Fold this protein.
Amino acid sequence: MNEEKKIMVESMFDSIAWRYDFLNHFLSFGIDRIWRRRAIRIISKNYRTPVILDVATGTGDLAIAAMKINPVKITGIDISQNMLEIGREKIRKKGLSGKIELIQGDSENIPLGDDNYDVAMVAFGVRNFSDPLKGLSEMKRVIRKDGMILVLEFSKPSGFLFRSVFNFYFRKILPFVGKLFSKDKAAYSYLPDSVNKFPDNEAFLQLLARAGFSDTRQVKLTGGVASIYTGLKKSIQ
């Protein structure tokens, strides 16, 4: 089942790569940019000129946003070659090829050595892992002692009214618009389904703890529609 999900996710993101950035910003009303900036500010409060790994980097939006804190280097990995190609072109046009490197790789078998990064971050990617615990454990493996994991991910609002509006938008509006622009109905039907199944809030904090992270925290964004989760690697294992 895990291998089947990897193949499905790779194929799906290869299919929608050409419309991915447009739909991300359009369907979130541009708020996703604000969420990424908030995530990067959290990193900047803890590290100066860090070495960063961006897992499930997609087209590199979070990696590009992280350039504001002057990292030594950012390595982005993703399973979708089509997403990476678009990301590399964006990075080239911004003159950032010397700072950001994108490589194809499985988030649950990261093709990089132990204890090499100050920060491992991921935006809207963990819910696509076939084995989230294994993916988070891999992120812990590649960061140094006292390094940070940062996860930006959708979460489910707790308030009844906001949750009702959120569910209607995610289940009805988003799949329709996604299909209209990307020509792939399945991809934008998968999104609300994956968010609904994702272990968010306290359940995700517990998952981070199971992966070996300490000092786990959650910052809710936009009424709980999304959250930033952080944790620290306190020992080298």
Summary: The chain has a mean pLDDT of 89. Residues 2-232 form a domain with the Rossmann fold fold (CATH 3.40.50.150). The longest helix spans residues 2-27.
